[in-house]
């Protein structure tokens, strides 16, 4: 932790600042979790040790709840799962993810004390729990969780006061970090990282956070490296400058971001982008060419908002042809009215592109993916991870559509962004590097002779047809916010 120091950030409380100059892509610090658990809804589809999604997992023979890639992962996770395993059997059922995470944190505190590492900059006692700021319905849920926790907590273990338990629930509720799968594409769990909790929010941050799953392939568990978060610089950071990350997606209006931050994290955002409402005009703008009346833009905006709610429900039900129909209707009615940076039109393009790629209509998917990326470029920070992921998806879609020249260019752009946000060793960056090399080879062939390239491509597809894309995820399942807070 020699790159950072704790300081009093004006108006924010404690924060972290850089103790030396940083450049884009630098790892400022990495930190393993105090504890982490898989979401209840994914308990049988994600390894409880390494958090990788797998088709077939081995179930714990004792509690019948925990699942692992193999015996190696099960042995690696036994130290954390041992007490949990017997507690689940005694309790007679599996408690929710918040209770399981608090129990794992409490067990570790009992064994190792409040300072678990010489790299730890703060104790859990020093972190804010915001219990006093909770709404009445949240306090009711908290009381139910505490009651269930007391029933679940092993009788032979050290007993704790209700205040101590309540504090930990509050800390987990406000500071639990979203843990992703091995590709970084879906939230699969939640963990607690004390040092990360000291990094304050800014809607236009100078850092980003990713989960590095480490190496879990060794046969002997002693050679496994623990999953950890990495705080990475998005650009040049001066010595003494405060380190910030964004807790919420920037692709929201300032008013909506402020409301989300107040509701979920109990503070008022006063960053420059919120105070000056930077880029809000682009996010709800009408087309500049014809200059449609303000009333027409508002009407189209309201229509898209209501339509997107229906689209999300249809997507949750797996009715993808209905999703396509509704997206097309929405785009036809609003594309001539709304600007290409309007956030609701961007969501329509993004959804339609993703679903059409899943249904293997790649030409259509590529067209809307390109429009989506063009809009994102005007709104996001140039090194934003969401922009990198969207550009990668668009590049792959163009590649699948046979548009190798555009596809290769987009994949190269995505690779440049993800090298900064994820680093060269992250699985998704390695996958992207392989794609970049493949598309570069195909692009050279394309430039030499387009006819030969397309002929060879058609022959290859006949022998090995395109496989089905991953099923589109619902908005709720995607990684939208940095920290996880139970709704």
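^ structure tokens above, recovered residues below v
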């Amino acid at each position: 932790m020699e790159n950072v120091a704790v300081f009093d950030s004006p108006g924010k409380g404690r924060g972290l600042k850089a103790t030396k100059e940083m450049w884009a892509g630098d790892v400022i610090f990495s930190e393993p979790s105090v504890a982490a658990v898989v979401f209840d809804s994914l308990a049988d589809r994600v390894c409880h040790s390494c958090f990788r999604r797998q088709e077939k997992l081995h179930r714990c023979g004792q509690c019948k709840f925990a699942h692992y890639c193999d015996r190696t992962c099960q042995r690696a996770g036994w130290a954390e799962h041992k007490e949990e395993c017997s507690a689940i059997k005694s309790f007679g059922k599996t408690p929710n993810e918040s209770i399981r995470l608090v129990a794992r944190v409490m067990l570790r505190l009992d064994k190792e004390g409040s300072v678990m590492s010489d790299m730890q900059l703060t104790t859990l006692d020093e972190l804010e729990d915001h219990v006093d700021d909770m709404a009445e319905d949240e306090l009711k849920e908290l009381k139910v969780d505490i009651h269930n926790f007391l029933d679940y907590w092993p009788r032979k273990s050290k007993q704790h006061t209700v205040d101590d338990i309540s504090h930990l629930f509050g800390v987990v509720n406000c500071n639990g970090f979203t843990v992703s799968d091995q590709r970084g594409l879906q939230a699969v769990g939640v963990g607690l990282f004390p040092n990360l909790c000291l990094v304050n929010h800014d809607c236009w941050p100078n850092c980003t956070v990713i989960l590095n799953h480490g190496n879990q392939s060794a046969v002997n568990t002693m050679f496994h490296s623990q999953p950890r978060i990495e705080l990475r610089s998005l650009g040049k950071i001066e010595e003494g400058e405060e380190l910030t990350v964004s807790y919420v997606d920037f692709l929201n209006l300032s008013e909506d971001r402020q409301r989300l931050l107040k509701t979920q994290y109990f503070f008022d955002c006063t960053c420059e982008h919120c105070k000056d409402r930077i880029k809000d005009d682009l996010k709800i703008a009408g087309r500049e060419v014809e200059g449609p009346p303000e009333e027409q833009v508002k009407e189209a905006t309201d229509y898209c908002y209501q339509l997107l709610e229906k689209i999300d429900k249809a997507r949750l039900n797996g009715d993808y042809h209905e999703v396509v129909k509704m997206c097309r209707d929405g785009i036809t009615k609003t594309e001539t009215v709304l600007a290409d940076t309007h956030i609701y039109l961007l969501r329509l393009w993004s959804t339609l592109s993703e679903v059409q790629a899943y249904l293997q209509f790649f030409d259509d998917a590529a067209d809307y993916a390109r429009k989506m990326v063009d809009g994102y470029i005007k709104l996001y920070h140039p090194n934003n991870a969401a922009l990198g992921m969207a550009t990668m998806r668009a590049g792959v879609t163009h590649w699948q559509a046979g548009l190798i020249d555009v596809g290769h260019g987009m994949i190269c752009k995505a690779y440049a962004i993800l090298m900064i946000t994820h680093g060269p060793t992250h699985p998704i960056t390695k996958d992207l590097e392989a794609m970049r090399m493949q598309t570069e080879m195909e692009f050279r062939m394309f430039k030499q002779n387009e006819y030969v390239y397309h002929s060879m491509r058609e022959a290859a597809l006949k022998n090995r047809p395109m496989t089905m894309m991953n099923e589109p995820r619902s908005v709720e399942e995607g990684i939208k916010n940095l920290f996880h807070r139970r709704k």
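The first helix runs from residue 71 to 91.
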